[in-house]
Every structure is written in C-alpha cells, then in structure tokens.
C-alpha cells in the first residue's frame, strides 16, 4: 500500500501571526476554515473541538503545514520544546538564501537559537524559534549557490 505525507499539523497560539511568518518565508495559503461539530470531535478526539485552521504549501508544491488555533477546548500552553526532547521536533525548509530568510524571520521577532552553522561547506543551517515556539530549521545548500 503506498503512503505519502499529507501535511504536518501544528497547534499555534495566534494563527494570523503564524500565517504571516510562513507566508513571508515563501509558503502560500491553500485554504482556511473553521471546524467544529461531531465529526471534528471524533476525528481529533476532543469533545467540543472547535478550531480555526489554515493549510499552507511550500513553493515546490510538495510540503504542507496545517495550522490550528483552538477556540474550544482552550489551547494548553506548554514550554517550547528543546531540540533534544522526545516528540515533535522541528519543521525544516530548504532556502535559496539563508541570510535573506533570517532577515524575514527577524522581522517577526524570530532569531537563531545559537547562530548559523556551516556543515562541511555543503550546507549553512540554523534552528530558530518561530511563532508559538515552533522550532524551524532553515538550510541553504551551498553546492547550488
């Protein structure tokens, strides 16, 4: 049976700020909706599930993020994850120009956790903390520059 990744779902504190961040990085909004009702409660496993959602797509058309801002039940605040914690780790993007991408992220108040690394003159990469504490990896393939 073939399998393919549909999207990565991320619960966020502020869907508008998160959409602005990712669209500035180059993703496009495919759709937005507000979901609730028995089907939504059954699918997600939360009684009274009610959320704003948005689906964003990468420019190559292969990657998608589905963002959720919960209206009910109220979202549970947690500490942002660390890179070595078990569970959802990060979302990673290849970028043509890491410096340009970091300038865009900085306009949203998002900065590298430590700095930009050079991996064997093949990649420049960094982790940054995006909206709602999402860890975002940006990587520039230096062999294509």
Automatic annotation (TrEMBL):
InterPro entries in alphabetical order: Glyas_Bleomycin-R_OHBP_Dase, MMCE/EMCE_epimerase, VOC_core
Keywords: Metal-binding
Single GO BP term: L-methylmalonyl-CoA metabolic process
Highest rank taxon of the organism: Bacteria
PROSITE patterns for the chain: VOC
GO MF assignments: metal ion binding; methylmalonyl-CoA epimerase activity
Protein name in UniProt: VOC family protein
